[in-house]
Amino acid sequence: MKVVYQGDEVETSQATVAGFLQERQVDAAKAIVEYAGEVYAPGADLTQLTLVPGTTLDVFRLTAGG
């Protein structure tokens, strides 16, 4: 199925946001996720958020530096 990730249409076989992030090698514990207009804090349970064709996902990774 195709979803919109970071503004680009991408193909995935994953059924949940958690699976999709794992597929993309994104650590959900360190990411803010916007899913269908809702914002989820780092470490939120994303296993119940299902993907359907056209789902929009934006992911913001937390970084630290000096």
Please give a structural write-up:
This protein has one helix and five strands, in the order ββαβββ. It is mostly beta strands and about 70 residues long. It has a five-stranded mixed β-sheet, with no helix packed on it. A hairpin with a 2-residue loop joins strand 3 (about 30-35) and strand 4 (about 40). The N and C termini lie far apart (about 40 Å).
Radius of gyration: 11 Å
Number of helices: 1
Strand line-up across the major sheet? 2-1-5-3-4
Helix amount: 10-25%
Report the uncertain regions.
none
- The topology string of helices and strands comes to EEHEEE
- Largest sheet entry: 5 strands, mixed
In percent terms, what proportion of residues is strand? Answer: 25-35%
Q: Please count the beta strands (DSSP E, at least 2 residues each).
A: 5
Give the overall shape: globular
Distance between the first and last residues' Cα: 40 Å
- Helix-strand category: mainly beta
What's a quick, concise take on this entry?
The chain has 66 residues and is mainly beta. 11% of the residues lie in helices and 33% in strands.
Helices and strands in order, then pairings?
Elements: E1 2-5, E2 8-11, H1 17-23, E3 31-35, E4 38-40, E5 56-61
Parallel strand pairs: 1-5
Antiparallel strand pairs: 1-2, 3-4, 3-5
